[in-house]
Specification:
The chain has helices spanning about 20-30, 45-50, 80-95, 105-120, 145-165, 180-190, 200-215, 230-240, 265-280, 300-305, 315-325, and strands at about 5-10, 35-40, 50-55, 100-105, 125, 165-170, 190-195, 220-225, 245-250, 290-295, 295-300. With about 325 residues, it is an alpha/beta fold. It has 2 domains: about 5-140 and about 260-305, Rossmann fold, CATH 3.40.50.450; about 145-260, 3-Layer(aba) Sandwich (Rossmann fold), CATH 3.40.50.
Amino acid sequence: MSKIKTIGVLTSGGDAPGMNAAIRAVTRSGICNGFTVKGIYRGYEGLINGEVKTFTTEDVSGIITRGGTILKTARSKDFMTPEGKKKAFEVCKKEEIDALIVIGGNGSLTGAWEFGTEYDFPVIGIPCTIDNDLYGTDSTIGYDTTMNTIMECVDRIRDTANSHERIFFVEVMGRDAGFLAQNCAIACGAEAAIVPEETTDVDQLAEFMARGIRKSKKSCIVIVSESPKCGALYYADRVKKEFPNFDVRVSILGHLQRGGSPSAMDRVFASCMGVGAIRAIMQGQRNVMVGYRNDDVVYVPFSECIRTDKRFDKRLITVLNELSI
């Protein structure tokens, strides 16, 4: 393998607080260790189109406090095709990029794995997604900030719920993973969480209603993971039909959850993982994700972190049930 001199870095998929901190860490650690670092704008789409710029330490100065990503991000259908990957590889050769660092979630790292495998190209992934659904790391960049954002929103909703004696169904992101909903429900003192890992049928919903309201409460908060079929609106409609005596409202937080300055924890995660990505390249590693477990940087093969589902701790359901009486 030829000596790696130039490293490309891109952000892909949904944005998350802490992406800029990761870009900063990759750039400064790379330069500190003798590499040329090139920023690739607009994810894989920008790589295909050659949107590449050589970065200096000044290019990443002052960005650790900012949400979003200075490199912009996009989802690329072209990169999913053999033709798209070939164009991306040709751009890497033209720009003399010898290795690639991809900052993103499951879909982004899947693309990184496929590209690295197909072209025998060194690729390192940094897990950055508010869903915290990647196996092999205790947390992903953006997760802690998003939990704090949701908590602040729900605290405000609680004031209204109590004042009007209402049931609020608050929908949060997470799609196929309920980590946000379950942990935020505990942090916010919510009465229940409805997550993809736990199927909630009519009986379970009725049980929650009886436990959370009919005994001692006239208002409550239910945190619901987003779903095209069974989101907050679906459960609110059910309560209106099955328990018409309750005043029900829905709040969908949406993209409000993605923005904002990253928390101290996410800045630390991003900084350590960015430096860890450069270390991986220096060690000759490839097709691995940089993870963070037990306060230490670890390296997880793409084949594991993408193919293995992250375990949902069902003990948290018991914690929430006991504390919501």
